[in-house]
Design goal:
about 240 residues, 2 helices, five-stranded antiparallel sheet, 2 domains, alpha+beta
Length: about 240
Amino acid sequence: MLLRNAFLVFSLLILSCHTTQPFEVKESKRYPLYDKGDLGMQYSPTQSQFKLWAPTASEVILRLYSSGEGGAATETVNLQKAEKGVWQTTLKGDFKGQFYTVQVRHADVWLAETADPWVKAVGVNGRRGQIVDLAATNPAGWEKDVRPSLASPNDVVLYEVQIRDFSTHASAGMGNKGQYLAFTERGTKSPDGHSTGIDHLADLGVTCPFASSLRFSLHRRKSSTQPAAVQLGLRPRALQRSGR
């Protein structure tokens, strides 16, 4: 059900932003369920596999790019229709670091060229996905990381926190202002001697901080040359499901 609903939301998001052509979305239960867990891009040094769940599509195109924005496609590939609404292809060779998009044809209407909804990394503004080796991005000791045990879901105390606002205030007492590293600082205090940062959340009884504003916004162009203060925002272009 999650996959079906994600497809419906993604379809409506693309259509509302990029086309005025009529498009009928059926009830989710009418679409075939694909539950093998390998949608999106699967990378290895010898090949990259791409799978897109698009049961209403009549044609799907994959384009490769050398950069996250601008420039013409270096390769164009037609995905092949497979089982349960999935379109797929496998490219032989090492494509690590390249970018890609998908474009779906529904009946006689070509929808917008976009990153696939199961993309693992994106270029500027999320317009293109990136072929990445996630294992290569793991910090030292990542394979030994184990989340705290939870006896019951009822024990969860969820708290949403902005990555930037968590540490940028002058009274926060943290050195890594507006950065992920601020979440690793312990023993920080306000000028009045009150606990701040992660210690403050622990004092509140929070068990599960939810870090928000992880995506680029649709309404403002972002690039690495702009100040960090405007790099974060809501309204993500790419829908992404996290594995952790």
